[in-house]
Design goal:
This protein has 160 residues and is α+β, with helices and mostly antiparallel strands. The chain is built from five helices and five strands. The chain has helices spanning 14-28, 36-44, 96-112, 126-134, 150-157, and strands spanning 5-8, 51-57, 60-72, 77-87, 116-119. The chain has a five-stranded mixed beta sheet with strand order 1-2-3-4-5, sandwiched between helices. Strand 4, helix 3 and strand 5 (116-119) form a beta-alpha-beta unit. The longest helix has 17 residues, at 96-112.
């Protein structure tokens, strides 16, 4: 098996990136709501919401990482948030996951000055959690991730 080539995704890759992320959603049992057009607009519109790296073997996408910056006063600077990391089933165990995360760190440092990384791991994916722990990730203590859906955001927006 040839080693995968990593590169920064471009607007032209929106469909291929979305296809990879749909496979991740399927693996996790999530409903995948994003369209190719939404991915293109969010990633390469006037105010990009994320950056992404693709891993390819020839014309085939075998891995993807989608990430964005956040700023934390508690952590003292920019932090890169990896919202999605996917490696094709046939490629898992080849070291591609750590290579993708390393590429994310390098790009996040160059782009936003990020020196720290965060991500979420589903409770139903203990193998993924073990993978991250082997790389040195540790669970956050004293925090609960909170979500507000579109209906809640619409209601909050009306607050004066």
């Amino acid at each position: 098996m040839t080693e995968a080539t990593l590169r920064q995704a471009t607007r032209h890759d929106a469909g291929r990136l979305n296809h990879a992320l749909a496979q991740l959603s399927d693996t996790l049992g999530d409903t995948h709501h994003a369209s190719d057009a939404q991915i293109a607009a969010a990633g390469w519109g006037p105010h990009p919401a994320f950056r992404a790296i693709l891993a390819e073997q020839g014309d085939r996408v075998v891995g993807a990482a989608l990430y964005s910056p956040s700023f934390s006063t508690a952590r003292g600077g920019a932090v890169v948030y990896v919202s999605d990391l996917w490696v094709d089933t046939d490629t898992r165990g080849s070291g591609l996951g750590p290579r993708l995360l390393a590429a994310v760190v390098r790009d996040a440092q160059a782009t936003w000055g990020a020196q720290k990384m965060k991500l979420n791991v589903y409770h139903a994916t203990p193998r993924a959690r073990s993978f991250y722990e082997r790389l040195g990730f540790a669970p956050a203590n004293g925090q609960t991730e909170m979500h507000l859906d579109a209906t809640g955001c619409a209601a909050l927006k009306e607050t004066r």
